[in-house]
Specification:
single chain; 344 residues; Heat Shock Protein 90; 3 domains; three-stranded antiparallel sheet; 8 strands; elongated
Length: 344
């Protein structure tokens, strides 16, 4: 590619040398060498610098089509061109190398920061349910006859809640790993969006005891052809996020809609909403709002965005004027005929 760029430029210059002059051709060829230094590694850059010098000598410096140079001034210019082309190539390449190292250093620092954030989150989010499970099991084992049925059932309930919490965090970590590795491939099939919403609500029942979730199924909603697994996980994470980051007695509303080409899912709450200066970061991996409630690894919303984009969809977030947040999913999909008419 570097050779072709030099040759192509030389051919153009050869047919226009009467207009620009052979000295101007040297500047044009130097520009091409600079472009090569930006695009390629050092060997092709040095090759293009050498080739451009030889081409300029053979085809442009009088007398043309031979290696002789008629005047001392042109000899000096040729050697200056040769030196400048090589210096230009090497310096540009070194600048690129330095910028690349600087970029890698920043990425490394960012990775370390993310790694520390993950460790800090996991130290709480995984240890807490594990400690709860171990403690409850030890209590049951150490007091097989002293525990009342009520206390035993409470311990079983704690084990169940902690297990669900632990499973949720592991699922989030696995989902993020799949997203990072590019392994998410949507499995498109017909599904009922109303049923997916009901399922996501049911999965959040244990955490939603102090919240009110309102969902009115959309009648005559056609079947949609999307990945039901990814969509249900998106719904679960959005509902769970609303439960976790809104005050008690908050109302969470879920709405469905569709047009000819897309289905729309809205998850709305009447909580405090998001700080304006943090809205653009809420979908970032491991990002947690300042002064947010304890708990969570900061993966839920980044997974929502990743799964949505895996289905070629878009997610929007905006604060409501009356207070609270409004998440809107827009996912391209196919639709079946009206379900009621099919049943008839």
């Amino acid at each position: 590619m570097s050779v072709l760029l030099v040759v192509f430029t030389a051919v153009l210059c050869f047919f226009s040398v009467d207009l620009v002059g052979y000295r101007a051709v040297a500047l044009i060829l130097l520009l091409v060498v600079s472009v090569n230094a930006i695009l390629f590694e050092i060997f092709p850059v040095m090759l293009s610098a050498l080739l451009s010098a030889l081409i300029w000598n053979f085809f442009f410096i009088p007398p043309i089509l031979n290696w002789q140079i008629a005047t001392a001034e042109d000899v000096l210019m040729f050697f200056m061109y040769f030196v400048i082309a090589f210096i230009n190539a090497v310096l540009t390449y070194q600048i690129r190398k330095f910028e690349r190292k600087e970029r890698e250093q920043k990425e490394r620092e960012k990775s370390i920061k993310l790694y520390n954030s993950l460790l800090n989150s996991l130290s709480h989010e995984l240890r807490t349910p594990i400690s709860t499970i171990i403690g409850a099991i030890d209590t049951i084992k150490d007091n097989p006859t002293k525990l009342s049925d009520h206390n035993r059932n409470e311990l079983y309930s704690e084990i169940e809640i902690a297990s669900f919490r632990l499973n949720r965090q592991v699922e989030n970590l696995l989902s993020m790993s799949r997203l990072e590795a590019g392994f998410i491939q949507p499995k498109i099939d017909w599904c009922d969006l109303n049923e997916l919403v009901f399922s996501a609500i049911k999965d959040n029942e244990n955490d939603a005891k102090d919240h009110k979730i309102v969902f009115t199924p959309k009648e005559n909603m056609p079947l949609v052809k999307i990945d039901s697994g990814l969509t249900e996980q998106i719904l679960f994470n959005l509902i769970h996020n609303a439960i976790q980051h809104t005050p008690k007695n908050t109302t969470i509303i879920i709405q469905l809609d569709d047009n000819l080409t897309h289905c729309f899912i809205e998850v709305i709450d009447n909580g405090k909403g998001f700080p304006k200066n943090e809205i653009e970061y809420v979908f970032d991996k491991f990002y947690r709002l300042n002064k947010s409630a304890t708990g969570g690894t900061g993966l839920g919303l980044s997974i929502v965005k990743g799964f949505t984009e895996a289905m070629n969809g878009i997610i929007f977030l905006e604060n409501r004027k009356e207070g609270g947040a409004n998440f809107t999913l827009k996912i391209p999909c196919e639709f079946s005929k009206n379900k009621n008419s099919e049943n008839e």
